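Posting here for the record, re: flavin-adenine dinucleotide.
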Amino acid sequence: MTSSDLIIFWHRRDLRLDDHYGLTQARSRSRKIVGVFCFDPRILSADDIAPARIQYLLGSLACLAQNYSIQGGNLLFFFADPCQLIPELSQKLSAKAIYWSEDVEPYARSRDKIVQDSLKEKGIEYVTHWDQLLHWPGQVLSQSHTPYTVFTPFWKNWNSLPKEEPLPSIENLEGLTIDELEQIAPIALPTAKDLGHCWDKELPLIPGEQAALEILEAFSQNHLENYGQSRNFPSIKGTSLLGPALKFGVIGLRRIWQTSQNISLYSRSDEARQSITTWQQELAWREFYQHCLYYFPALVNGPYRAEFQNFPWENKPEYFQAWCTGNTGYPIVDAAMRQLNETGWMHNRCRMIVASFLTKDLILNWQWGEKYFMQKLVDGDLSANNGGWQWSASSGMDPKPLRIFNPYTQAQRFDPEGDYIRRWVPELSSIDTANLLSGKISPLERMYCNYPEPIVDHNEQQKKFKILYQEQKQKT
Ligand SMILES: Cc1cc2nc3c(=O)[nH]c(=O)nc-3n(C[C@H](O)[C@H](O)[C@H](O)COP(=O)(O)OP(=O)(O)OC[C@H]3O[C@@H](n4cnc5c(N)ncnc54)[C@H](O)[C@@H]3O)c2cc1C
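Prediction output follows.
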């Protein structure tokens, strides 16, 4: 290969030029790298798409296209089935090689296999690398060389492995000629509306690589050393909000890791260093769930634990409707659901509270909640979302059999002044804080505030759930 032979880089969940392993490898072979992003009709027509996520994706793609162009290259967009598009493009452009980053999701893996087979048949070289994880499947295995199904030993092993340094942003690319562009007819970057998804509100974070790096910098400087305490309080900015950037690979994992390590190096207290470790542990949770999905793809379709296989969920549609719209009569649950509906994002503490409430109080199948989250979350991600829901439902890998959150004690501990609840359920603003948190709001006050009575009784429902669970366990 010569330095001006054409390489196609097929971008999927790696929308950046900085700290990019595959792009760096491709750039070491040629200057003429053409970035391609394919809008896959199969993904876009699925019923678990969130408009906020699409908006973030499009914003990040616009930034990536601009970054390519600043370096003299092209990022091209297509609306097509990638299994056909990628081999066809490779032939039309006489590409010397096609590069892409690997993925853990079952659909992505089966799609990539089809593309690989087709390229092989046509005699076109393809090269793949792992990029969305610090340690990919196969690198973190138990002593008996099996995948971990419990987080703590995974974390110990994962944390002990050396981490690679971030890579510099790729530079100095060569673009396509007009003739080459005419042959392949790329489309302009579509709008969310063009794709059938409309998000007209502000996003919780600015899309794009530069913004993600700035968010990382600001979070590391101002919040990371307090993460241990502040991450649990939904009324304050205590977490990074990097979820969407991680979901779409708008920021590199090596860059994130090194930034957090540097802060740790200069931290003055054990408490601050512990906070940083706690945050790094969350990054490891993300990787744990991706490894789980890679090794146990059946997680996508149902529970990991046998006792949940045929669980007698009550599945009352009116309960689900009240949960989705934030009208359960439980202030912390309603605040969280309204935050999700309004902004496309929900704080982690609240995700755990509402997921526990859906499964253990409303006795609704966790998969209903899983899907609703995917339809709303700007950071909605199959592995993390499935992992979070199965953890909350107790149907997943976590060894703790039954985890039931009391919505009142959760509110008292993590929203002690009621600020979060008042922000998202403003009709309760005038209620005394202690009563707001304990739910002791009289029927008259509820009527006056136009706020519903609790849809179920928490104590009764948790007893009921435990009985159902024990019965189910005996059957398996
Ligand atoms: C029911 C439920 C559903 C969830 N759905 C998703 C989802 O669709 N997408 C998603 O990224 N996270 C999901 N999470 C995990 C977590 O709530 C979010 O990652 C976190 O709230 C994002 O906020 P942040 O970016 O400020 O995270 P930070 O607290 O700053 O953490 C940094 C990053 O670590 C990762 N991370 C943090 N906590 C977790 C976790 N528990 N599991 C996996 N990764 C984690 C995320 O990539 C996150 O951006 C879910 C959790 C639950 C309980």
